[in-house]
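Worked problem 6 (solution included).
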Amino acid sequence: MKSLLSYFQSKSHSAESTLSLKDLESARARISNYIPPTSLTYSLPLSEFTGKEIFLKWENKLHTGSFKERGALNFLLLLDEQKRKRGVCAASAGNHALALSYYAAKLSIPCKIFMPKRAPIVKVSSTRKHGAEVQLIGDTFNEAYDYARELSKKEGLTFIPAFDHPAVIAGQGTIGLELHDQLPSFDAVVVPVGGGGLVAGLSAALKLSGRETSVLGVQSHWVTEMRNGAKTPSDAPLGPVTIADGIAVKQIGQYNAPLIAKYVDSLQTVTENEIASALLKYLELERTVVEGAGAAALAAVMAGHLPIAYKKVVVIVSGSNIDANMLSRLIDRSMAESSRVVRLTVSLPDAPGALTAVSTVIAKQGGNILQVDHDRSFAVTPAYVNVSFLLEVRDSGHTKEIINALETEGLRVTSEV
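Solution. The predicted structure is:
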C-alpha cells in the first residue's frame, strides 16, 4: 500500500495540481441541466454476502453507461464558440469515447475519436452511432493517445483527455458532492482507478466538503504487471486481454497524481479472477450487468482489502459497457468452476435408439443437456461410439447421481468438469 501511494507522490505535477470546492460546485452547476444525480441504494444481498453495509452508487445508469459523462460534459461546456466550431478529439478505450461523442452531438460539436484496435465492439459501434468519426489506432490506449494528440495539433482540434485535465477531474468529482448530500455518514468509499481522474476528483470533493471518510482506490493487477513489462499477466484468465479494459491505463495522469497522494487513503490491486467474481456477483445478486472496471471496487471489498473496522461502505459502480462475448465467456467459465456445468463422455453401441436411451436416463435425473458430440473414430470398442454430453447440473453431487444412474445401466462414463 505504501509503495503505491509513494508512486503517486513521485508522479506529482511540477506545479502541484489544485482543485477547490468552488471548482467542484461550479462543475456540478454546469452539468446539472444534462446530468441529474445518480441513485445511491443500499444493497441487502451484497451486505449479507460481504458482512458490511454496502451502498451502491449507480454511475452505470447514466445514458452512455458510465461516469465518464461528467468530466467530458464539463470540459465541453467550458469551450468557447470558436473551439466548438473547430471540433474536438480524444483517445479512449471506450467509455470516454461514448460520453464525449454523445455530448458533442448534443452540443453540435464535431468530434473525432481514436480507439485501440482491441476496444470492445459494443463501445466502438455505440460511439459511431452518436455521430463521431471513429478510427482504430494501435493495440494500446497509449498508441491511440499519441496519434490523437498529434492530429489535434495538425488540425487545430481541442484534445479532450479521458482523465488528465482539471476540468475532467472536477466533472468526475461531482460524484463526491452527490455522495456528501445523499448519505449522512459512511466509513469508506471504494473507487476503481485507471488514469486516476475519478478517484482524484471524488476524494477531493469528499475531503474538501469536510468528510472524514476513507477513500480506497482499486487498480487492476493486470495493469500493474503490464507496467512492469509482462506480455501476459500471470493471473489473466482471458490471456493478453483484460476483463477490465476501462481501467487498463499504463500511466496515471500528472494532474491526478498529487490529488491522489493528498486525498486518497489507500490503494490496492485486484486480480482478473477477483474482478470476474465481482462482475458475476452483480449479475447474480443485483440482477445487473456491470463491466470489469465497474466491478473492480466490489472486487476489492470481496477480496477483504477493506479494514474490518469499516462497516458502512459506498461502492462506486462506474460502468456497464461490457462486450457480450466476454460476458458469455465469463459466465460459462464460472458455471464450470462452480460445478454447475459438466462434460460426460459415454460409450454407446452405434445403433438406433441408443442415444435416446441415454438422454432419457439423464433427463430422469434432472440433468439439462446443452450440447451433444459424437466421436466414432476413437471409440475403444468396435461398433461403439463415444458421445459427449455437456450438461447443466445443480452441483458436483448431482453430477455423481447422473453418473451412477448411467453406470447402473451398464454404460462406461468418464467426466470432465
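Discussion: Residues 1-15 have pLDDT under 50 and may be disordered.
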